[in-house]
Amino acid sequence: MNLLLSLLELAGTFVFALSGAMAAAQKRLDIFGLAVLAFATGTVGGITRDLLIGATPPLAIADARYGAATMLAAFVVFFGYRWVDHISRPVAIFDAAGLSLFAVGGSIRALEYGISPVMAVVMGIITGIGGGIMRDVLIDRLPMVLAPTELYATAALLGSAIAVTGMTLAWPFLPTVVGAALLCFFVRYMAMRRGWHLPVPRVDT
Question: If 102 and its partner were Cys, which of 12, 53, 121, 141 is the partner (CB 3.0–4.6 Å)?
Fold first, then answer.
């Protein structure tokens, strides 16, 4: 379980860092800017979670593999932007994948530190959305989590809730993790492709 959890977080770090590097490239930042945005996007969510649950130093700082994953993502985008752009809708797909991996992994990590199930779900959401918020703030755009046409935190909530429920009820680990991550990704992806969104208030002007 610990090995799979580490792989989840490393994979989440890499794909989130890719989304940050792609956003930086689209803003025409130099290689240093790509590296900074990749690192921030890939690690801020996990660092925030670890500080809140008392896991210090945060894993993204204590383990050099996390920083290396973000730098690898920056170099992949710097030297292979057209290839990365070709295989996906640049930021959105990687962001959805990172959200799914981080939400599920973050909630399970919180459970391991004795956090209550409800707050473990919250920690999963924070892990999932933290990097994306930092990325959007740094490039001066409205964070996706606040956009009325996005299902962002909601997708993270669903994935985290399934993961925590499975862990609490002792469901088989691998199917629970995969199912929770796929659900999160599916909801986020359908929000992008089909315009799924939560109800918004009707304001007369």
Answer: 12
pLDDT tens for residues 62-113? 999 999 999 999 999 999 988 887 766 656 777 788 889 899 999 999 999 9
Rounded to the nearest 5 degrees, what angle is found at the Cα of 184, between the Cα atoms of 178 and 190? 125
b/e per residue 95-117 (b: at least 16 CB within 10 A): bbbbbbbbbbbbbbbbbeeebee
How many whole angstroms separate alpha carbon 199 and alpha carbon 50? 33
Q: Round the CA-based radius of gyration of the chain to a whole number and report it.
A: 16
**115 half-sphere exposure, CB direction, 13 A CA radius:** 24
Question: Cis (ω within 30 of 0) for the bond into 57?
Answer: yes
